Amino acid sequence: MNATMPHTQIPEVLISEVGPRDGLQSVKATMPTADKKRWITALYDAGLREIEVCSFVPAKLLPQMADAAEVVKHALTLPGLTVMALAPNLRGAQAALAAGVHKLTLPVSASAAHSLANVRKTREEMVDEVRNIVALRNEIAPGVKIEAGISTAFGCTLQGDVPEDEVIWLAAQCIAAGADESGLSDTTGYANPAQVRRLFRRLRAEIGSRAGAAHMHNTRGLGLANCLAAYEEGVRTFDASLGGLGGCPYAPGASGNVVTEDLVFMFEAMGIRTGVNIEKLIAARAPLQAGLPGEPLYGMTPEAGLPKGFFQGTVND
Amino acid sequence: MNATMPHTQIPEVLISEVGPRDGLQSVKATMPTADKKRWITALYDAGLREIEVCSFVPAKLLPQMADAAEVVKHALTLPGLTVMALAPNLRGAQAALAAGVHKLTLPVSASAAHSLANVRKTREEMVDEVRNIVALRNEIAPGVKIEAGISTAFGCTLQGDVPEDEVIWLAAQCIAAGADESGLSDTTGYANPAQVRRLFRRLRAEIGSRAGAAHMHNTRGLGLANCLAAYEEGVRTFDASLGGLGGCPYAPGASGNVVTEDLVFMFEAMGIRTGVNIEKLIAARAPLQAGLPGEPLYGMTPEAGLPKGFFQGTVND
User: Using the beta-carbon criterion (under 8 Å), do A269 and B156 form an inter-chain contact?
Assistant: First the structure.
């Protein structure tokens, strides 16, 4: 493929593919390392330029991620790709930085209950962890970007409502602790478009251009509507997962993350350039299915195909 | 159930359930009349106050609709319900008016190719048919409302692109021919939110308050995002189908109409009152499934359930 694009084809939104991390850690099966590499390459070939390739967590807890460093090593061979990984704590961040990632995402729960359940830390303790990770980054890898993803920002399956003031406060605390950006995650699929607009507007008012990605789930079918609402509030980075990989254990049969294929189709159909070729994106389902045989995939656009006469202005090859 | 609602619970949007017509005529099996009646009653009990209960078409063409008059007769027993039916021509309209419907919807294709394929008439001939149906209504049932639903308004599986000027022209022609309102239908699942906003804005500029419902499909997953876009342009009536019944033959495995359960959840979660009780709406899937055993239903909210602590202000009993 040809990585150069005419000026008019510069993407207007960044689709950040999280399937290799968020998707793979949510399914029981472990995808073999060689398949992960093939899948990541196929995602890259479709035009994706930010991929969350793994998380750095103890292999005892998440055996699916035991090969994280090797996966990062492969992803680093793809020119122009921002290689992203999740780290829940300082130890994970150390390993991720040692592996050479370009960007780290740290999950910081807005729900007090979820924070304790997920990382065994209070929210204040997690902000301290962000500060420690920033200090480490400054020391050993100052070029690496750090994003604090505020999870359960739109509601929590443990505590229900999450006060909006606490979400915005926490994002501001993470920025004050040195994170480069902070986005909002609908971990539980509770968000609605009015809430998405309200919270991203407040986030931008609070932390300005450090407001980061919208990470939406499709648990109740509102994933794309929530992305549209976020877009209209000025958000330009959207997390999504190929085939919607990443089922929520609390919602059997319901898909998890926003489906990359449908999200890219929505933006492209609206005339908003993503830099992603939809047909190649759909083709990237093959290595995913090869590496996770029998795993159900979601997504309407791959089933229906593209509309008759649909022309994608962004074809980047 | 108690049909009176406090003033604050007056619905802000009208969800027009089209499953008994659009859904049932799209599936191969014929639902027994007794099951149709039970299903319609369950939809009514959930708070739906406009239901498209059938279409008046030759039984040879659509045996699923052979009991249309009997279904209308039952629906007319439900107080406060607007009983709606589709009629593709004057003969169908005669039968519908004789059966006592409150509202008639006439499908008028914006795509020249689809118009010929669907009703064997040019668009101009179909406008003449609208005029004839209006004359008949004026003579024998002046209280009945007539809606011209502009189908393939966002693109066509036969001809591809449908010029927006022609869509708006056709809607204006239908209003000039005497239709009370004209809405836009994404028959093929081609619509995107930017196009939805543009077309409904133009429609409103052209025919003002006679702009009618948004009839969106979910073929490529954009159904709710398109409804959100239409809402933001001032649309307040939305067609939807319980369980997304109504698969598109051109999109195997893809659902057809916007799923009523997810649409109602989206609006209610946004604080926009629908008058529909989501739990009772989900319960209305049981008589649908009883009458169409084995038919796949869609919808994420029924799978995932309501968020923890979710309170619906519109519970109307």
Answer: no
